[in-house]
Specification:
52% of the residues lie in helices and 14% in strands. The chain has 221 residues and is α/β, with parallel strands linked by helices.
């Protein structure tokens, strides 16, 4: 059992699947004695909370935490790495390791992206080369309050960035492939500019298909 002076970390991401916007990874470190506070506040998986509730909890989490670290990976960086045929699971493990390397902790809980949760934990540990314990599980944001806290911090950061992009490029919706507003934005943008803005993950199937459709339309014209 952890002593009261030891530190526990939670790591989670927001924005793995969207075709627009960054992938955000957050790490939150707290003392074990503060877990009860997270539970009392109703900290849980960010997807189960309203935007206003997430914003309020994010402020409380940052005040309570011993440390918070956020890593924002742009669409351009994601595309560059994917063009090297590197899987998103491996990339996420590396980026989570980067976040953990900037924090002081004794045990870390991470939300596993890989179908094999233990393998995902080993990928992170291999990047760190330190003896600290990593527990990698699926749906860790539902099992561990500190991971849920990290999911909230990551989601709030990504939502903030998406609002900024809306102001710059227009309202493209959520940025997820299944969002009709997002798909319309991509189709309209490439029809007008013959390319996508830097905020788009051009290696995503959605973007490739819309680009191909535009190319066919251009040839017919």
């Amino acid at each position: 059992m952890l002593g009261l002076t030891q530190q526990i970390a939670g790591v989670d991401e927001a924005g793995r699947g969207p075709v627009i916007g960054p992938l955000v990874i957050a790490g939150v470190v707290i003392e074990p004695a503060h877990e009860d506070a997270l539970i009392e506040w109703g900290v849980r998986d960010s997807k189960d909370l309203t935007p206003s509730r997430r914003d309020m909890l994010e402020q409380r989490i940052c005040q309570l935490a011993t440390n918070v670290e956020v890593l924002e990976i742009s669409a351009k960086v994601i595309d560059t790495e994917r063009q090297k045929k590197r899987s998103l699971n491996v990339l996420e493990a590396e980026w989570m390791a980067q976040v953990l390397s900037r924090l002081k902790w004794d045990i870390a809980y991470v939300d596993a992206s890989d179908v094999n949760a233990e393998r995902y934990g080993r990928m992170i540990a291999a990047q760190l080369k330190m003896p600290n314990k990593i527990i990698s599980e699926h749906k860790a944001d539902s099992a561990y309050p500190v991971v849920a806290a990290a999911s909230i911090v990551a989601k709030v950061r990504r939502d903030r960035r998406i609002r900024e992009f809306h102001q710059r490029y227009g309202d493209f919706g959520s940025g997820y492939p299944n969002d009709p507003k997002t798909r319309r934005f991509l189709a309209d943008w490439i029809r007008t500019h013959n390319t996508f803005p830097d905020i788009v993950r051009q290696t995503w199937e959605t973007a490739r298909n819309i680009r191909a459709a535009n190319r066919q339309r251009t040839l017919k014209d």
